[in-house]
């Protein structure tokens, strides 16, 4: 048998280089490439009976755990107990770890590593074999390799053997097939290419339903997309009500899914860990906006790492938004151990810290890129779609005298604080970074016209409200079309709502405290009624929503990170958009607005230390540049 010869001969093939990743030629054209058949790949051709006891007696045997997506090495007749003492150093050297409960060694699901290890063990006198599941898994990799090679040659893919209610684009057929033939995989297409549809089509081809974990703001969007792409589905369950009632709903679904989908938000996993782990066991799990699970120390990430679904698919447009270390948890979810079994192992191999523990650099990043490219598929809109252009416009406004006085007062106080608290050339401590971040937010709010928090917490706005009124002027100048307005801070969103309402606009505003059902009603109204103004908080409305009914959007606040800006822009610039999308940035001249925009244009991740996303703190000089006059410093 070719497979047996491949395994026993020690030739791992070229799986690492041939796995799907990057961009493919010819995907815009239609064509015919026979679909891969679902089920176990071509078992009859290689003579493997998955359920037959075909494995001879051996000292050591490789096994494949499908739901854990990892290889196991166990004694076939009880030899070498207590961690295979004679060869344990060899096993550790190949990335293995000993699991006490099962008395087995665990390895990443890497065929090349497995074959290399088997050869070394044989040289040391061990007899090594592979069970039927390993042979099935390895043959599946060969099938994907051949299919991928044809895909890279420019052939179009015909898709999965399912009926499409909504016809997919060629690149969507590719993505759905990619997911369906992987036990674990990531899809990091650029925002706007329909990752949701690709995951739904893949799930329909596999088990017909799935458990989806997504941000709270897009749960109802998932329900709408499932029903649109699969009208025959039995239903989409979104637990609601009290904590007890939601737990009961999850347990009821687990006992009898009957082709229904279950949609949960990330935060709910903290309260329903047991119910969630039971629901996903042996089923399909889809993580939307999976970058929310990038923190290995977070409780939600730990829960997800302990899940054992049969299929696990991660969807995100920004898998490594700011730092290389962001990808460890995401790759660990897909293929445990591929970048080290623990965060500390990854840190030891790839992160450089100084004497006080600050991250100052990285090493061996080529390995990270290789592993990431093997596990993830990503395409850009420019390579897949002929979308209309994006038109950028900047409106530079002058603050009123009242706003300027308040801004300068706060700016000088913040500068004096920096000079007195942080030594020249030094870095801000964690506490100092938190204080600086809070004061910087106030500086930005003052630029928006929110000049004072007032007495007893009452808000005090400038009479001019320059930037807010400029947003209304943009809408009126464009002929009062359907428009999206982006802002960071709730007081600013509320004031924007009032100003547009005074201008006789049909207006809706969404921020974190707005119930999800109300948000869904507002978005539906925006999509159906021309002239509606939808005001959204970037963190809440900037991911997973379809807002392409409009073609005009305004940023009253500049996002902290490129990731956040791209996510917001692509709510409108996505599949289904037929008009050029205009993006208007309203900046207050001589304020931090200009510096933040400059940072974004330079693709600098300013928010990684200004916000609470990281323990990395900026230097005194970086902080000082934020509070200097941007006009004087050349921004």
**Whole-number radius of gyration?**
27 Å
Tally of extended strands? Answer: 20
Secondary structure category: alpha/beta
Number of separate helices: 27
What is the helix fraction of residues, given as a range?
40-55%
Shape: globular
- Regarding quaternary structure, how should these chains be classified? single chain
Q: Could you describe the largest sheet, including whether it forms a barrel?
A: 7 strands, parallel
Strand line-up of the largest beta sheet: 8-9-7-10-11-6-14
Strand content: 5-15%
Mean pLDDT, nearest integer?
78
* Unreliable runs: 1-58, 603-616
- What is the first-to-last residue Cα distance? 67 Å
How would you characterize this protein structure?
The protein has 27 helices and 20 strands. Helix 20 packs across helix 21. Residues 1-58 and 603-616 have low confidence and may be disordered.
Structure keywords:
globular; 41% helix; 635 residues; seven-stranded parallel sheet; 27 helices; alpha/beta; six-stranded parallel sheet
Task: Annotate the secondary structure layout.
Blueprint lengths: L1 H7 L6 H4 L24 H4 L13 E6 L4 E6 L5 H4 L3 H6 L3 E3 L4 E5 L2 H13 L4 E3 L1 H21 L17 H11 L3 E4 L7 H12 L4 E4 L4 H11 L6 E2 L5 H13 L5 E5 L7 H8 L3 E5 L10 H7 L5 E5 L11 H8 L8 H8 E3 L5 E4 L2 H11 E2 L3 H4 L5 E8 L3 H21 L8 H18 L18 H12 L5 E5 L2 H13 L3 E5 L5 H13 L3 E6 H4 L10 E4 L6 H8 L11 E8 L3 H10 L5 H4 L9 H8 L8
Parallel strand pairs: 1-5, 6-11, 6-14, 7-9, 7-10, 8-9, 10-11, 15-20, 16-18, 16-19, 17-18, 19-20
Antiparallel strand pairs: 1-2, 2-4, 3-4, 12-13
Helix pairs in contact: 8-9, 9-10, 11-12, 18-19, 18-27, 20-21
